[in-house]
Every structure is written in C-alpha cells, then in structure tokens.
Write a structure and sequence with these properties.
By secondary structure, this protein is an alpha/beta fold. The protein folds into two domains: 32 residues, no CATH class; 256 residues, Rossmann fold. The chain has 14 helices and nine strands. A hairpin with a 2-residue loop joins strand 6 and strand 7. The longest helix has 18 residues. It is globular.
Length: 295
C-alpha cells in the first residue's frame, strides 16, 4: 500500500501520513525494509504448510556454509518474532548457537513491554556458559523484562531435579513459562558437536546410547524419537525444562533449525505437534520432505 493509498483510507493528507510514518520509524514502532523475493523459498514453504499442521513455514536458501546458514535462519526467525501479531506479551525462549545469533539480530523495539522467560536450564560449563544471555538480550531489545531459570540443563539425579524445581525461584519461572503466548526454541541434532556434549552434560557414549534407542535430536534438552516421544525416561527425569506436552499446549510455538543434520528432529517436531511455525533452511526442509516420502 502506498502513502497515497493510506492517506485516502484514513482521510489524511499524503504529507501527514509521511510525517506519521517517520515518527513511527524513529520510535521503532514501524520497520520498513526491502526483502529480495529470492530470500525465501516459497515453493518449499507451501509444501510444508500443505503437509503439516503448521500455520506458517519460513524457508531460506542453504549455502553450504554452516555459519552463514545459521545466521540466515536466525535472521529469518528474528524477523518472524518481530512480525507476530498480536504482539506477544510473554515469550518463552531456549538457548543455543542459533538462538545466540537470533538475539544478536532481533530488531530493537520488537515487542515493547514484553516479558521474556527462559524455558530450560542453562549450560553452566563449556564455551557458552550463560544460557540466560539469549533471554536477557531479547528482553533488552524488546524493551521489556526477563525471568531467568537459575538451574542447570541436566542434573545428576531425578531427586536433585525435584529439589531444584521445588525451589520458589525456579518454580515461579517455570510456571510463568507455561503461560507464555509464544515459545521460541532451536532444535538440537544428536551429534558429537551438540552444545550438551561440548558442555560435558552428555558423553560420546551417551550419544551412542541415545541413538541406539532411536533418538533423532532434542527439544529443550529432551531427546525424542521419530515419533516425537522422549526416548529416555531416566534422562528426562534429570532434565530441567518445560515438558513436551507443555510445548504442545502453547498457543504459538516457533521451532528454528539450521543444517541438514536437523532434518530428522524437525520432522519429528512437525509430525508430533510441537511447532506451529517452522523457520529453517532448505537443507532441513528438503530432508524433512525426503523423510516424509520414506526416502
């Protein structure tokens, strides 16, 4: 719609509309950007939307360069978050490499007054020690407030997890997360370079055992099989995060995936009702479609 068309619709002068748009841009209320039509692969988006119970699929081209692909997917997911209407008042978020990239590029003023809640325990060791950094940065750019989950991703025993989740500070954050308008999370592959492996929470033997029982990847640190169900009750009992059923109950769930190794876990999330919006690169989506075709 042109400024002239807006002016006619609102019975204002074109000059007045131009001034209002400038003020809105200056305040971060309106964002105007040029998006190249080849920046998204509409034919793949249409295939995902027609085959699965999702309200939207956003697919960007794969480049063969893992870091570039991750940045492109993160930018697409950040734009998706900024474009949500109605603007969410509470967003639950996970962490990870793609989520780090997303938080770094989200538009300032994306949701004024938003409350951002961390939905799973953090990595407290390794290269990325602050899992709460993603939630904190998204809240800062909102601008809004943040609730951090002061707990590890995986603990040593089910009894320890129960004690941690009974603590008021942790309990209140998880209760808030259950009431979020939107859940935003990246999908994890079952691989040796997983953040959970690099951080020491899982060993190479753990990965092999999970693969042997049918795991295809993780959602919020919960390892799932091709049917979208958790494959290890023992590991699940030690994981501090929203449950898979709680993810499915959220009004809007945005799953983010970059790299062909995420195709299997993305397919499982799609077919088991864990995402209403998928943001991924073409490697992931083509892999999903191959799995759907039994290839």
């Amino acid at each position: 719609m042109t400024q002239e068309e807006i002016a006619k619709h609102l019975t204002l002068t074109r000059w007045k509309v131009g001034r209002m748009l400038k003020e809105a841009r200056d305040q971060g209320i309106v964002k105007i950007e040029i998006v190249h039509p080849r920046a998204r692969l509409r034919h793949l988006e249409a295939q995902v939307q027609s085959r699965y119970a999702v309200r939207q699929a956003i697919v960007v081209p794969a480049h063969g360069d893992g870091e570039t692909q991750r940045r492109d997917v993160a930018k697409a997911a950040a734009d998706c978050l900024s474009d949500l209407r109605p603007v969410p008042s509470m967003v639950g978020v996970s962490w990870g490499r793609t989520m780090d990239e997303l938080a770094a590029v989200v538009a300032p003023g994306w949701a004024r007054g938003v409350e951002v809640v961390q939905v799973n325990g953090a990595v407290t060791r390794g290269r990325n020690p602050s899992g709460g950094a993603v939630a904190a940065e998204l809240a800062r750019q909102g601008p809004g407030s943040v609730r951090l989950l002061a707990a590890p991703a995986i603990v040593g025993s089910a009894a320890t997890r129960q004690v941690i989740e009974a603590d008021d500070s942790v309990k209140q954050v998880l209760e808030a997360a259950r009431g979020a308008d939107v859940l935003l999370f990246s999908l994890g592959a079952l691989s040796a370079d997983s953040v959970l492996v690099e951080s020491g929470y899982l060993s190479a033997k753990d990965v092999a055992r999970l693969r042997a029982v049918g795991a295809v990847g993780d959602v919020l640190g919960r390892f799932i099989g091709a049917d979208g169900r958790e494959v290890s009750d023992e590991l699940s009992a030690r994981t501090v995060a929203l449950s898979l059923d709680e993810i499915r109950q959220a009004p809007v769930t945005i799953a983010v995936a970059s790299g062909v190794e995420k195709a299997a876990v993305a397919h499982a999330a799609l077919t088991s009702g864990m995402c209403t919006i998928l943001v991924a690169d073409s490697d992931v989506v083509e892999g999903i479609l191959r799995l759907d075709a039994g290839q």
